[in-house]
Amino acid sequence: MIDFLRGIVVHREPDYLVLDVKGVGYRVFCTNPYAIQTKDGEETTLFIHYQVREDAHLLFGFPTREEQSLFRLLLEVNGIGPKVAIGVLAGGRPEVIAAMIQQENISFLIKLPGIGRKTAQRMILDLKDKLGVISAGDDSMLAITGTGHLAVPSQGAGVWSEAKTALLGLGYTEAEADRTGQLIKAKLKGDETVDIVIKLALQALFQQSLR
Questions:
Q1: Hey, what long-range contacts does 178-181 have (CB within 8 A, 24 or more apart)?
Q2: Helices 194-209 and 159-169, interaxial angle, to 10°?
Q3: Which of 22, 54, 93, 207 has the largest count of CB atoms under 10 Å?
Q4: How many helices, marked H, and strands, marked E, lie in the chain?
Q5: Cα–Cα distance, 12 to 98 (Å, whole number)
Q6: Is the distance from CB of 151 to CB of 194 less than 8 angstroms?
Q7: Packing angle between helix 94-102 and helix 82-90, nearest 10 degrees?
Q8: What are 150's strand-pairing partners?
Q9: For 13-69, what is each residue's pLDDT tens digit?
């Protein structure tokens, strides 16, 4: 069982990165590879969930133990596989998602990618009493959702506002978010979803971190 990998990020795609661990390149699927901040030549540690299938051996990586733990708990819910679990984690910080499960906030949960009402109810039933390993008591962790509502992909003038809220929830400062907004402004056509804008912003932030 692989619990974590420590190495250098040598390649990134929208859904995975390649981690060079002493000359061996591991393809690790992540919620957002561009959000993992490392500079060229610097090592990073990813906590791993190792899945063995008949047709493949897959690695899923997370920057924190909390994300790793929540991912594994989500896999215990009937109807949630790795792809959906990764999508759920992309919807907010583990502390936020844990808090919404414990509060039985179905209206929040059904806005997570791949989660319908029945699956949300199963999440609450199966996980509500298993989230002690994930701290959900810090209200500051709800910054990404504001009043508890998930910033879901949408179109229109409010897209950047929602994307900025998500960036602030991920730990970036307002100055960093505003600066990044100016950098990607020329790339936007006006019909992008929040998800696309966030990915563009994270890519720009990653490129800035390399300078």
A1: 180/204, 180/205, 180/208
A2: 50
A3: 93
A4: 8, 5
A5: 28
A6: yes
A7: 100
A8: none
A9: 878 999 999 999 999 999 888 777 677 678 999 999 999 988 889 999 999 999 999
